[in-house]
Amino acid sequence: MTIIISIGMNHETAPVEMRERLSAEPDHTVRALAFMRELSCISEGFFLSTCNRVEALVVTEDGDRAKKSIISIMSRLGNIPESRFTSNLYVFEGDEAIRHIFRVSSSLDSMVVGEPQILGQIKSAYAEAARHKISGVIINRMMHRAFHVAKRVRTETAVSEAAVSISYAAVELAKKIFHVLDEKKVLLLGAGEMAELAARHLLSNGVGSMVVANRTFERAVEVAEKFRARPVSFEELVAQLEEVDIVVASTASRECVIRYDMVKSCLRKRRNRPLFFIDIAVPRDVESEVNNLDNVYVYDIDDLKGIIHMNMAQRRQEAVKAERIVQEEVVKFHKWLKTLAVVPTIVSLREKAECIVQSEMKKTGSILAELTPQQKERVEVLTRSVAEKILSDPISFLKRKADRPSLNSYLDAAKKLFSLDRE
């Protein structure tokens, strides 16, 4: 029996230290898909790796073996013994797996309910699975339905309007620390989407000045121009740490960018002014030891959970509507999935009808030879049309019974009535 399984970990089930081990390398998704393709127990696969979740979605005939294989793949990717992370995993099967991917796509399972980034990440992961030819009929259909569900949730509810982004939460934390951000100096470390969102929120809250650092200086210049900030090079980081009050770090570096010794060396010149790091990168940009220094405070993405829960009542109210949409779409997908059981019989019916048409056309070949090509073509069209109309009612009947417990009895009857087994 075909089973759909989702297995993974997210911000609720695993700490950032665990998640970053599995999402540290940019090629993890490609490697995971390659491993899946080698497994005979997995007929279709999909792998998603973001800062807040790492999970696999597979179609299999052997659920137990597929689960063990996915856990083994994750162990290899993160170079972590399986015993270290199995307790952090969630596993969904069947309709629950379908519901899970629909909820994830709709941002109902995100740290920030309603945030839009996850849908783009899922689309990219799906494109990768398709490119590696490991997605198939079921996952292809499931992903497209997931995109449809996300669109419905976005347009039919106000979940996204009530959302608070990670970057917004980072700025709210800065406001709690300093009360007001006027005259505060900010270093934006990284120039990606998260950094740009943070910059917008910081400016709207009146920060005094902002500098932007990025490994690619041209990108730092580009972002700085958007936000009336000043671009600096990575080589100037220590000098900037002597001046700024807040560092918002969101690079895509695989290693820590802000090191303990780097921060320690600039403390004397700061003259006891507090320095706050808000690290929203995974893997983290700031060494955890930095938090041990006097007057230095480091907050990572997991520390933002409390800030993110603001406006929770409003989001919850809208999420109830969104959950209803998700469940409605799960029911529809389940019905479609059931129709797959009748497909082989329907294909056999149509193939038999086509064989009969071709056979009878050959038998009347001498008569048809007297017709013009156009007349012969019309006879063929007429013959196929008659065959299709005869099959239309049995095929429609089988499709309607696809989600009934008695389906197998109807399939057996159809095979006997049309002698499909002998075919």
Provide structural commentary.
With 423 residues, this protein is of the alpha/beta class. The chain has 2 domains: 185 residues, Glutamyl-tRNA reductase, N-terminal domain (Beta Polymerase, domain 2, 2-Layer Sandwich); 143 residues, Rossmann fold (3-Layer(aba) Sandwich). The protein contains 19 helices and 10 strands. Strand 2 and strand 3 form a beta hairpin. It is elongated. It starts with a strand and ends in a 6-residue tail after the last helix.
Task: Describe what is shown at a glance.
This protein has 423 residues and is α/β, with parallel strands linked by helices.
How do the SSEs run, as a string of H and E? EHHEEHHEHHHHEHEHEHEHHEEHHHHHH
Low-confidence stretches: none
Q: Give the proportion of residues in helices.
A: 40-55%
Indicate the CATH topology of the largest domain: Beta Polymerase, domain 2
Structural class computed from helices and strand pairing: alpha/beta
Separate helix tally: 19
Could you give the count of β-strands?
10
CATH C-level label of the largest domain = Alpha Beta
What is the strand arrangement across the widest sheet? 7-6-5-8-9-10
Mean pLDDT: 87
> What would CATH call the architecture of the largest domain?
2-Layer Sandwich
Sum up the overall morphology in one term. elongated
SSE blueprint:
Blueprint lengths: L2 E8 L5 H8 L4 H10 L4 E8 L3 E8 L2 H16 L3 H4 L4 E4 L1 H11 L11 H15 L5 H20 L9 H13 L6 E5 L3 H12 L4 E5 L3 H10 L3 E3 L4 H5 L4 E4 L10 H5 L2 H4 L4 E5 L16 E5 L4 H4 L3 H28 L3 H21 L1 H4 L4 H28 L6 H11 L6
Parallel strand pairs: 5-6, 5-8, 6-7, 8-9, 9-10
Antiparallel strand pairs: 1-3, 1-4, 2-3
Helix pairs in contact: 2-3, 5-7, 5-15, 6-7, 7-15, 8-9, 16-18
